[in-house]
Design brief:
Length: about 80
């Protein structure tokens, strides 16, 4: 009488997906702010903005598709 069903992975649970999507959206808007609204625009600002935008967009996509995002794959941070 063992239950052979697999438990859903952590990134497929609804609360985790919701929080990941919200945090990803914040990263997207922060990346856009850094790229477009900082003055004067510098190469470092553009690079940081693109990185924030890319990680945020990946988190939003991962939350919608119930997949693991890039940031969650690097493991726990100190």
């Amino acid at each position: 009488m063992n239950d052979q069903r697999k438990a859903a992975p952590f990134y497929a649970k609804p609360i985790y997906r919701l929080l990941t999507g919200i945090f990803g959206a914040c990263l997207v808007f922060t990346g856009l702010y850094v790229m477009l609204l900082t003055s004067p625009p510098a190469v470092l600002h553009l690079a940081a903005g693109i990185a924030l935008f890319a990680f945020g967009a990946n988190m939003v996509f991962s939350a919608l598709a119930a997949k693991e995002s890039w940031l969650s794959k690097i493991g726990p941070l100190p």
